[in-house]
Design goal:
The chain has 14 helices and 22 strands. By secondary structure, it is α/β, with parallel strands linked by helices. Strand 10, helix 9 (about 240-255) and strand 11 form a beta-alpha-beta unit.
Amino acid sequence: MLKIINPAQGGTIAELAEDSADSVLAKYKAARAAQPAWAATPLAARLAAIRRFRAGIVDHLERLAAILTSEVGKPIRQSRNELNGLLGRVDFFVDQAEGALAPREVFSDSGMREVITNEPLGVIANISAWNYPYFVGSNVFVPALLAGNAVLYKPSEYAMLTGLEIGKLLHASGVPQDVFSVLVGGGRVGIELLKEPVDGVFFTGSYATGARIAQAVAPRLTKLQLELGGKDPTYVCDDVDPATAAASLADGAMYNTGQSCCSVERIYVQAASFDAFVAAFVKEVQGFKVGDPTHEDSYIGPLTRAQQVKVLQIQVADAVAKGARVLTGGHALDLPGGHWFAPTVLVNVNHDMTVMREESFGPIIGIQSVADDAEAVRLMNDTDYGLTAGVYTRDEARARQVLAQVHAGSVYWNCCDRVSPRLPWSGVKHSGVGLTLSTEGITAFTRPKAWHLRSA
């Protein structure tokens, strides 16, 4: 049985029967059998089903937000924000699917035509994440279903109740049960899923797990998309208002209790603005309310996974031992559930410290002084990751020059921790391969077929 634990209180809120190797195989076979009929269903009907799914989210938003908060500890207002943000993503996919999936004639001359069509991959394995289960899940299963695929959806064991609710809503909206199957369980169930000859594997999670998945499916040459972690840097130049930049970046670092792959995890500040920025940043962080995530005024909730508390403790201890100074926080909090960590700001940091090199995934940030743009670029690129990076400056040309040199899939000027359905979401290095979102994130669930057509 899979126990679902409330991280804010520590109690078990549900126990679920886990899938076995036999049930995973059965769901795979059912999905394989059901997929051709779903692909043959007119796109208009598939679009209508996803529109009904959207309407179901709206109708049940408060209940779904409460479930999400109960199992991952996300503050309730942030759970609502995720659900409301989902609506815009669904709208984008629905609006763009027909154009993205339409056949394209690319050549016509003397009776010869060349056409490209997009055919569904087939059966998709979607191994998803707990920190934004609606966002990262829908980035895969919505366009996959619209493109005519069947989906075997393995939510994180930390967001399993949410995953089951997603399945119920899709089935009630007209997506056949065998076309969208939810697999219940942890890593063992994921391993069983990867044994099946699926046509695509789309995973969101850590680099370590992503690397293991890549090794597992490599011999089959299965299409693979990995959305992995980040150690996302931001550079604050000396020509911006320190307080304005600090307010934006404190939110970017601490929102969702810092448990976002695109959370700001490293900040570099030009020396002339360093003291003013740090003072403003600490003030912002100390104003964040830590508390029961069901309360409307709570901004920092518990960490979803208890083991992450130890990770943050180790990072702080390592930094302090190497000369860092804790300006606020730096320790676990003795609150119900045992998953709590105080919002933490460190200075006098450098790249010998794990807090500046390894993903933290919690409410902790290191802030380092730099002399100029060149030093900032060097440090921003001194990482195994490459998900997002940002620059705060009044000068757009300066921002463009800096960001052009930074190795990252998404870059920000005077903003951070932002995802748009209109833009591709991708990473370099240990942050992953492939992409979701944008129209390219629709065709990612298809394979192109080349047609050479000569009239008689």
